[in-house]
Amino acid sequence: MSAIVLLILGLGGMAAGYFLYSRFIATKIYRLDPDFRTPAHEYEDGVDFVPTNRFILWGHHFTSVAGAAPIVGPAIAVIWGWLPAFLWVVFGTIFFAGVHDFGAIWASVRNKAKSVGALTGDVVGKRARSIFMIVIFLVLLMVNAVFAVVIAGLMMNFSTAVVPVWGAILVALIIGQLIYRRILSLPVVSVLGVVALYVLIFIGPSVPVQMPAEVGALSGNAVWILILFGYAAIASLLPVWVLLQPRDYINGLQLFIGLIVLYGSILFLNPTLVAPAINPDVPAGTPSMIPLLFVTIACGAISGFHGLVSSGTTSKQLNRETDARFVGYFGAVGEGMLALAAILAATAGFATFADWQAMYTAFGQGGVNAFVEGGAYMIHNGLGLNEVTAATLLTVMAALFAGTTMDTGLRLQRYIFQEWGEIYNQPWMKKNAPATLLAVGSCLLLAFGAGGADGTGGMIIWPLFGTTNQLLAGLTLLVITVMLVRLRRPMWYTLVPLCFLLVMTIAALLIQLRAFFEQGNYFLLFLDIVVLVAAILVAMECASALKRSRAEMTEQKE
């Protein structure tokens, strides 16, 4: 099949989701009020609570939730064939991710911008909040520790991307000053920022920066990880308008340009999908497609991490409640578009089926490498761009998104420690600096405590990310559903995705439990049991909370 057909169907479906379905959800279900005073105005402090232009906020939200995951997940899942991955990304974006992300912003804004973890205590109960906070902490720990490894790996393997990736931070700092001091208008700043970013990308191959393989007692990879956490700690303490917002905004623009380049190369090259629609001959050891497809592709279809960003940073910056539709739902559509690009690059970016099979020799293969190599192949042959430059462009794209997710993830982890300080009455933990040190310290403890001098400890627990992350998405949908029931509004639009996620997550956890036992991996076996118990407790809390809410409604009617 031609990749163009898949491209048109995918983009058309997501466009219909935004223009039709999200409008219905906004007006009939969440019932957005343009006159509602958002927490960004009510608690404005110039650091975390900052009323923000919706386009800039969309850039922050979109790039924070995107990261490398919508590239990695789909580019691994195509091992089962391109059709299941395509259907889950398109329909998951429309009916799952958009409603989830949009709803998390709405729920938080309506409750003083509380994170979805803290909000659970008010909406469902303290027991559910305790479960939620543990799951949130695990997800953030995984995201921060693993994305540091991913970015460090890209820096080590693609030395041409080092200057563009770090130069983008300087560009963002300048952009932030130009925007918020109103020196230049947003359109002018946007053009200048994008031009500067792409100039850096073209300069990158001329000035490669290679970290030595060994630096003292540490590997080069470990040094990059330490540098990344040092940067993320500083970024998490700065006011959002100084670095976080402008960096994410300009990255969002460059992603769309990168997608246009990638999609344009498909239109010019008209490549064929060399991978099968359904792969009947998967490599030995590949797990069952159902339910593993739905946890392998999380970001790009639905992801619990999005609920953390939506309720952790985005809700504190929303200027008007009606902006939540554009920021939340369209942010999910943007990520779905990136996941679609990853599927096309990983299935149509190879000359032959044999080349594709050589990449996918085992489950877990592909990922960023398949996206970069496949995408560079299509851009080079479709648009004539030098293959090294094309690979640098896509590598920078992946690294910048992983970096923005890490920035936001560490800030969110700081919020978790501060919320624990509030819950357990520890005033010192409520302060930004101590909470940031705790966040960084916990990540480094995992990275170097479990991974030794190489700093790759986060990879040890990464196999549980998909299931833990989707459990988190189910918890977020639970909070939104209970709110809708109490407001006497239709709940099916969130309840159906909630039930589907819980069933698939619990099934995936059981499959992984058996695999870890057979492998003798008792550490992951223990963590799997912890997450599985949390999933079952969440399901019970879900039924209990919904039953209580409906009983309250019945009493009120009587």
TrEMBL record:
<feature type="transmembrane region" description="Helical">
    <location>
        <begin position="492"/>
        <end position="516"/>
    </location>
</feature>
<dbReference type="GO" id="GO:0009267">
    <property type="term" value="P:cellular response to starvation"/>
</dbReference>
<feature type="domain" description="CstA N-terminal">
    <location>
        <begin position="3"/>
        <end position="347"/>
    </location>
</feature>
<dbReference type="GO" id="GO:0005886">
    <property type="term" value="C:plasma membrane"/>
</dbReference>
<dbReference type="InterPro" id="IPR051605">
    <property type="entry name" value="CstA"/>
</dbReference>
<feature type="transmembrane region" description="Helical">
    <location>
        <begin position="388"/>
        <end position="412"/>
    </location>
</feature>
<dbReference type="InterPro" id="IPR003706">
    <property type="entry name" value="CstA_N"/>
</dbReference>
<feature type="transmembrane region" description="Helical">
    <location>
        <begin position="433"/>
        <end position="453"/>
    </location>
</feature>
<keyword id="KW-0812">Transmembrane</keyword>
<feature type="transmembrane region" description="Helical">
    <location>
        <begin position="522"/>
        <end position="540"/>
    </location>
</feature>
<feature type="transmembrane region" description="Helical">
    <location>
        <begin position="85"/>
        <end position="109"/>
    </location>
</feature>
<keyword id="KW-1133">Transmembrane helix</keyword>
<protein>
    <submittedName>
        <fullName>Carbon starvation protein A</fullName>
    </submittedName>
</protein>
<feature type="transmembrane region" description="Helical">
    <location>
        <begin position="158"/>
        <end position="176"/>
    </location>
</feature>
<feature type="transmembrane region" description="Helical">
    <location>
        <begin position="130"/>
        <end position="152"/>
    </location>
</feature>
<feature type="transmembrane region" description="Helical">
    <location>
        <begin position="256"/>
        <end position="278"/>
    </location>
</feature>
<feature type="transmembrane region" description="Helical">
    <location>
        <begin position="329"/>
        <end position="354"/>
    </location>
</feature>
<comment type="similarity">
    <text>Belongs to the peptide transporter carbon starvation (CstA) (TC 2.A.114) family.</text>
</comment>
<keyword id="KW-1003">Cell membrane</keyword>
<feature type="transmembrane region" description="Helical">
    <location>
        <begin position="183"/>
        <end position="203"/>
    </location>
</feature>
<feature type="transmembrane region" description="Helical">
    <location>
        <begin position="290"/>
        <end position="309"/>
    </location>
</feature>
<feature type="transmembrane region" description="Helical">
    <location>
        <begin position="459"/>
        <end position="485"/>
    </location>
</feature>
<feature type="domain" description="CstA N-terminal">
    <location>
        <begin position="364"/>
        <end position="508"/>
    </location>
</feature>
<keyword id="KW-0472">Membrane</keyword>
<feature type="transmembrane region" description="Helical">
    <location>
        <begin position="223"/>
        <end position="244"/>
    </location>
</feature>
<dbReference type="Pfam" id="PF02554">
    <property type="entry name" value="CstA"/>
</dbReference>
